[in-house]
Design a protein that fits this description.
The structure is a homotetramer of 224-residue chains. The first copy, chain A, is α/β, with parallel strands linked by helices. Chain A has two domains: 34 residues, no CATH class; 175 residues, Beta-carbonic Anhydrase, Chain A. In chain A, 41% of the residues lie in helices and 14% in strands. The first copy, chain A, has a six-stranded mixed β-sheet with strand order 2-1-3-4-5-6, with helices on one face. In chain A, strand 5 and strand 6 form a beta hairpin. In chain A, helix 1 packs across helix 2 and helix 7 runs antiparallel to helix 8. The radius of gyration of chain A is 19 Å and the shape is globular. The interface between C and D is large, with 116 and 116 residues. Chains A, B, C, D: InterPro entries: Beta_CA_cladeB (IPR045066), Carbonic_anhydrase (IPR001765), Carbonic_anhydrase_CS (IPR015892), Carbonic_anhydrase_sf (IPR036874). Chains A, B, C, D: Its cofactor is Zn(2+). Chains A, B, C, D: It is an enzyme of class 4 (lyase). Chains A, B, C, D: It catalyses: hydrogencarbonate + H(+) = CO2 + H2O.
Chain lengths: 224, 224, 224, 224
Amino acid sequence: MTDFPAKLLAGYRNFMSGRYSDERERYRVLAETGQNPHTLLIACCDSRAAPETIFDCGPGELFVVRNVANMVPPFEPDGQFHATSAALEYAVEVLEIDNIVVMGHGRCGGIRAALDPSMSPLSPGDFIGRWMALVKPAAEQIQSNEFMTQAERQTALERVSIRNSIANLETFPFVKKRGEKGELSVHGAWFDISSGELWIMDSKGDFVRPDLTELPVQAEQASA
Amino acid sequence: MTDFPAKLLAGYRNFMSGRYSDERERYRVLAETGQNPHTLLIACCDSRAAPETIFDCGPGELFVVRNVANMVPPFEPDGQFHATSAALEYAVEVLEIDNIVVMGHGRCGGIRAALDPSMSPLSPGDFIGRWMALVKPAAEQIQSNEFMTQAERQTALERVSIRNSIANLETFPFVKKRGEKGELSVHGAWFDISSGELWIMDSKGDFVRPDLTELPVQAEQASA
Amino acid sequence: MTDFPAKLLAGYRNFMSGRYSDERERYRVLAETGQNPHTLLIACCDSRAAPETIFDCGPGELFVVRNVANMVPPFEPDGQFHATSAALEYAVEVLEIDNIVVMGHGRCGGIRAALDPSMSPLSPGDFIGRWMALVKPAAEQIQSNEFMTQAERQTALERVSIRNSIANLETFPFVKKRGEKGELSVHGAWFDISSGELWIMDSKGDFVRPDLTELPVQAEQASA
Amino acid sequence: MTDFPAKLLAGYRNFMSGRYSDERERYRVLAETGQNPHTLLIACCDSRAAPETIFDCGPGELFVVRNVANMVPPFEPDGQFHATSAALEYAVEVLEIDNIVVMGHGRCGGIRAALDPSMSPLSPGDFIGRWMALVKPAAEQIQSNEFMTQAERQTALERVSIRNSIANLETFPFVKKRGEKGELSVHGAWFDISSGELWIMDSKGDFVRPDLTELPVQAEQASA
């Protein structure tokens, strides 16, 4: 008997008798031929905003980066470890994905931390403090607005963070190049945990709710 | 009409009429009271190995980091941006998660790249090359072993990478401290995309298949 | 033959043969006994946001003030003409209304003017400039935020204006007094012209979408 | 659950499933392209005299000011807050409306207050008293007429107030200028709540009932 969390093993047992059992052949083919995901999805670590759940995606569809507050740092070819930049490079240059989606969400803890000027480092390394410095100029400007409520400031910075990540994406030469060739498109999305609403970013950077009634009905959605 | 990928919007529509509709109240409560996930799951970006799918987890259960080859860098309080260390710090110090699981998987593209000595940088920044340097000593030694097959070398390095991440986890003072107090436990797992098999790491670092028949039946699995 | 706009006369003819014909007795009684509206509604002049339409209210229900950007000035007993303060005084002290609702809306032209630092006076009297000075401090702070889009700034100030009006309402002694006695409650609402969504202000000043499914079914809604 | 008046939420629900549902596209276009109302309508706050109801107007048609007794103050470029003058300036200079209609009505509470010499201030600020001072000379002369009944005095002052507002409109240079160019026409109307009758002001300032049978039949009334 292992001390591996029993809850996770029970979940795995459900997966094997349920979804895997239904999609056994799909997993086998995906293992043989390799993955060919259509989308790189950059999302937050938050336990309430799993992209495969929200977009009802099956195996093979989404190449997923998850970090705190769904951020992309700017292009920094400095020889350091860059988890997000490495995943981006692999998704664009090897997998040749068609879309990049940066998905933020409501009530994001990283964003909340960025808006809290009184927050002290969580540990001597202050990793969250450093990481959230990626949106620090916006965080300071938004936090100093005395006319917005705290919740409004939070939503505002969540959306700024998505636009900021998208702007940083464009600083990567390989993203820019494939985008200019029309082989790659970049999108933003924001998920409201409480209501389940999805808002998507339009060409002006604003977030609007998509009209789902206009979608063509797809016989089988979950094909990669 | 937006140019947001129609496939994703169709998936979102499925989510809203299906899972969200069933779990509306759970999402609402999770939004109100905040997340309280039991596990930090460090997984690969690979589109075939989504942890929520494999462990059949609902909203609120898993705080998820996904980067190429599910890696944790060593503790480096150098003031740079560290996506993974920041998420780790937040999960342990703010969310006080009970478990950390590092999950690798078969046919990992990052691991394959690390084992390919002829591979040239994917882009001038060589982000994947730099990132995979985290397992470079092991990769070189395994690749030079002429008695293993390429598939054996691949699986071997996938598992080394999991043990390496776990060893790096222990270099973070806050992980070590909470582990010593018995408030945090750290685990490894490896998922075989082709067969659906899950292997878990035992106390010696070996990967074994758990006996699922020993599991207590849980009335309702998906509670956070 | 008059030069009164034919469009309006045709509309009036529709009213007489339609709604008035159906509600003849109600109009007669309302004329005899006087009005007894339950709500003072302070709304914008905008042609797309008529409160009787949005709340499907019949004659006798809403006592309505409409000015640009649905504003309430602060209590200024200075002997000048105060259109809004006079209506407020009459609604509270004579009609003893139960609720005050300040309703703003999206794409408000007055708010847009307040956010446009380059706007010159519309006429030598600069009446709009002076009127919108009621939200000037907030307008300046929001306009200077370079990380929000223009549409986000617009929505932010529309909501600030509602909270500002509500704060100003509380400066009127008779509003405060009846509120403290529990005889009067004050609410905020924001209407999205494009989507038809109504957002209402919660106790923290945030705007949220009400759950209409929780409403009791009312046999006849439109009774005063 | 919110404490927002349930009656209003129920009305909104009716609106969404009824009128909005029928006119969704019209609202969307009005949001996109902006409003272009043909008429500025200056009406009373009275709950029994909503102009959109009486003229059966749809979204986008009427830019509406509502204050007590449908009054327009004289042109006073004194740097103070002027709700009505600001709306007038915006309607004429920005929206370039074609018509201004001042609509009074029977049994107006503001007019009744103006005719009551024994009335004490409703509150220490005496806002209604100050506001109704706009028709004070007429109110005093009419009230002192011992040969008219009280109901006759009331109707007389209601109509004087309309003419007074129209005279004050002409003191605004931008109204005068556009009127002289033939781009703007100004009208008066009086609505009898009890009977539903609409009386319109003729060129001599008298109120007469329009002959609706002369109206051309309009295929679709509600176009802006």
